[in-house]
Write a structure and sequence with these properties.
Strand content: 15-25%
Shape: globular
Low-confidence stretches: none
CATH superfamily: Response regulator
Order of helices and strands: EHEHEHEHEH
Largest sheet: 5 strands, parallel
Distance between the termini: 27 Å
CATH architecture: 3-Layer(aba) Sandwich
CATH topology: Rossmann fold
Radius of gyration: 13 Å
């Protein structure tokens, strides 16, 4: 069973992600800030991380993504940014930091589930 880590400071968004993905397909861990998210990533070595960019803690999502993607244990971990930051520069910064996908809030739960499934199966979705 694939392990997914959600790093998101808003509880209602974490719940929506949970509902979108379903509990039976994945083992899901949650963190409400970047610091605890990084600690959980180190502890559980998830296959995929869904995270916000702007959140409490010492590091933002870009910094966490960059840090993880530069560690051998996380080079193949898929990272999806799920954020309200919708400017083109924000997206470029996200991809430069190493994310695999970038979704803007509000997001489609169906699209999120499809992207997660495709990333974990090693296939790319065609939009």
């Amino acid at each position: 069973m694939h392990k997914i880590l959600i790093i998101e400071d808003q509880e209602d968004v974490r719940k929506l992600i949970h509902l979108s993905l379903g509990d039976e397909q994945y083992t899901i861990y949650e963190a409400n800030n970047g610091d605890s998210g990084l600690a959980l990533a180190e502890q559980f070595k998830p296959d995929l991380i869904l995270m916000d960019i702007m959140m409490p803690g010492l590091m933002n999502g870009y910094q966490i993504c960059d840090k993880l993607k530069n560690e051998d244990d996380f080079k193949n971990t898929k990272i999806i940014f799920l954020t309200a930051r919708a400017q083109e520069q924000d997206m470029l910064d996200g991809y430069r930091s190493g994310c695999d996908e970038y979704l803007v809030k509000p997001f489609s739960p169906i699209k999120l589930a499809e992207i997660v499934k495709s990333l974990l199966s090693g296939q790319r979705l065609q939009y």
